[in-house]
Amino acid sequence: LGFVNVVDAFQVVNNGLLPRPFYEKQLVNGKPQLVLTDELLQLKDSFHFQNFALEADARWQLVETAWNLQLNPNLLEVQYDELQSLFFVEHNLLRRVNITSVREALNGYQKGKCFYSFQDISVTPDSPTLCQVDHFLPHLNKRAHLPANINGVWNLVLADRTINNAKSARVPELRFLQRLYQRNEFFIASKHPLAETIINQTGATPQQRQHFLRQHYQLALDHALHRWAPAIELPATF
Asked: Residue 99 above 80 pLDDT?
């Protein structure tokens, strides 16, 4: 059953097979075999290979935590610890369970790129390109956004360190709001364990989620002097 269904599903994204699959499935003398393609072998030579194991572990830890708490992974309500840069859940009379690093959980859904500049970023702790976690809408005026949670997954992005320091607590230009919406929809469409958290925080339908983002973007602008854009912006990858 696994060879028939599960193996095939690994390479299906948005209801379609990857255009350049990482492996092919064969039956040789009635025995199932996987044949690795050059695409998988080339992954090792890419900049982002350093993040591969960390991203996979982060996603697995989210699923495993849900199972250990006897929850459907799609019902996991994840919270953010800014001080430790961790995702966690509260369960059974507010017992806290740490899950995984925020960087590692978010990186794959930005395709290993800075949210603002599309420069390569890393989640490896000793890397010179280690990224930072940024609040897209500034955390500074969090009271203005209540009851919405400005620390929610929906508002967290990864950014190049220099870019993030330049942004500081400023509000990005409007065009970046659509990018944030698309990034959040990536999570939801992929059935990622963080998907339900984003839905609970921003709305059940795409229209509700767009309205939510526009509403809070305007709230942030009401407390801002001007909008910000990065000094460097490479061609978009998402």
From this structure: no
- Say what the alpha-carbon torsion angle 75, 182, 236, 110 is, to the nearest 10 degrees: -10
**167: region left, alpha or beta (phi > 0 left; psi from -120 to 50 alpha):** alpha
Which of 10, 197, 185, 209 lies closest to 99, judged by CA? Answer: 197
List the one residue out of 53, 116, 58 whose CA is nearest residue 87: 58
- 3 DSSP assignment: I
Domain map (residue ranges) of the chain: 1-45, 53-228
Dihedral over Cα of 217, 191, 10, 158: its sign: positive
Q: Tens digit of pLDDT for each residue in 123-134?
A: 998 899 999 999
CA atoms within 13 A on the CB side of 74: 5
Q: pTM of the entire structure?
A: 0.78
CA 225 to chain centre: 29
Separation CA 187–CA 202 (nearest Å): 13
